[in-house]
Design a protein that fits this description.
The protein has 159 residues and is mainly α. The chain contains eight helices and four strands, in the order H-E-E-H-H-H-H-H-E-H-H-E.
Length: 159
């Protein structure tokens, strides 16, 4: 497995930002917006495939970024709700529900924001914890964690 870098983490954050805009904010109407998720719900099967596929991709990015378990659970809740609402559109006579609900409940957007917040609250180190402890750098990283109130954890990318 290739070693991750801080650049890899920044790329994940950037890719997730793109999904936020594409899924839930292609067209903005004041505080409301509609994206591919809402538009594709009107096309049977395609909307469900897009919603579930995007949810899976966001969860894969969370795994790549080593998101905290609580963040992943929150993402699963948002994405599960979004996917269930989209799947309701496959039922005859209920196909209007996802189109309306996707404007109000933006699961991809909320899951992406949760992942980005997790990434931003992490002190990333391009080393292994063992090497950092051996060189004394681990103590410096702990000091950084204590002095920056935004940071909640340290992740060593080479572990």
């Amino acid at each position: 497995m290739a070693r991750r870098t801080i650049g890899d983490i920044e790329k994940i954050w950037s890719n997730v930002e793109g999904v936020k805009k594409l899924s839930d904010r292609v067209v903005g109407l004041g505080p409301f917006g509609i994206g591919l998720d809402g538009l594709l719900t009107w096309i049977p099967v395609v909307g469900t495939a897009y919603s579930v596929g995007t949810a899976g991709w966001l969860l894969l990015q969370a795994a790549r970024a080593r998101a905290r378990p609580g963040t992943v659970v929150r993402m699963l809740g948002y994405l599960g709700l979004d996917s269930v609402i989209t799947a309701v559109g496959e039922v005859p006579f209920l196909d209007f529900v996802p189109g309306v609900a996707d404007v109000l409940i933006r699961g991809h957007l909320m899951a992406a924001k949760a992942l980005q917040k997790d990434i931003e609250s992490t002190h990333w180190v391009e080393a292994s914890e063992r090497d950092a402890r051996a060189t004394g750098e681990h103590e410096r990283h702990l000091a950084t964690l204590r002095t920056d109130p935004k940071l909640r954890r340290i992740v060593y990318l080479h572990d």
